[in-house]
Amino acid sequence: MVNQQQTAIKTENVQQAAQEFWLQFQQWKQDVQESLSQCPSGLSDELVAVKSEIAILSKRVTDATLFLPLYDQRQCSLQLKDLNDQVTRIQGTRAKFSFKSSKSKPSTNTKLTVSEHVVSDTASTLPLHGQVYSNINGKTCVAQTLPTSEQDLYVSNIVSSVLDLRCISAGAVHLKNITNSIVLFGPIRGSILVEQCIQSTVAVVCRQCRIHDSHRSIFHLHVASHPIIEDCDEIGFTSFEPLLLTNFDESLKTVGLVAIRNEFNKVEDFNWLRQQASPNWRLIDEPNVFKTWTDVSNDETGDLTKSLLMKFTPQY
Known about the structure:
Layout: H1 2-37, H2 45-64, H3 70-91, E1 97-99, E2 109-112, E3 117-119, E4 131-137, E5 140-143, E6 152-159, E7 162-165, E8 172-179, E9 182-187, E10 191-198, E11 201-206, E12 208-212, E13 215-223, E14 228-230, E15 233-239, H4 248-254, E16 268-269, E17 281-283, H5 303-312
Parallel strand pairs: 2-5, 4-6, 5-7, 6-8, 7-9, 8-10, 9-11, 10-12, 11-13, 12-14, 13-15, 14-16, 15-17
Antiparallel strand pairs: 1-3
Subcellular location: Cytoplasm
Organism: Batrachochytrium dendrobatidis (strain JAM81 / FGSC 10211)
InterPro entries: C-CAP_CF_C-like (IPR017901), CAP/MinC_C (IPR016098), TBCC (IPR027684), TBCC_N (IPR031925), TBCC_N_sf (IPR038397), Tubulin-bd_cofactor_C_dom (IPR012945)
């Protein structure tokens, strides 16, 4: 009887917390909306401040996913997207940015540094803050060791490539338009947002993972909250292989995830709210392929990249 009473009280507290957060979220959103209405056209100090407010609001939603119902999470996500869309419209057209190697001799194995990013007419839009890796095709790229950073990491337009960013510790990751590729991340203090990931493999340690409009891909996760998918199919999930990080326990401690339980197998599908299991994702039963991963060596011919893709990406 006591246990039943405790459970009822706990459930009531969770529902109350969710309701209070929803009301508070609406007030925060209204404050951001008012700030947006006062921003002049183009990139301005006011707009930079609003983007910071939206980032804080997004983090609050991430922290609240432990008790927010799926419907509320989706509504918050949609409203945040609307705010970001308004920022994009106010900001207008911006310069384009992409990765380009500084070496005069072309190579399929490239060490990435922030200073090697250059303006390009064909790359994705450069965010106001953060590190950007974009427009990489048919290469194996290994990031150089960088200081621990709370900046966001933006990765986009990666095709038939291997991208090793394990040495970078970021505040959050935005991964978009990835096709037939492998992307390895270092520990992330916040969340990873994935969009349009096709027939690829992603390995990451993070607090939250959201995946949109992705297909035939596998995610190796160590994640503090339930992964969320939307408009996805044929998505596989498995546990992150600790051997991918030099000191796995220390890496978790660095980003505040040392005591968390890995929730990689508690996937929630926003397009499948029935009691039956969603047909859009599955758990990978096979032994973790990354147990055999070795650090990437130089690859002048592209043969290494092709062999890695054959071994570590989903084959459909």
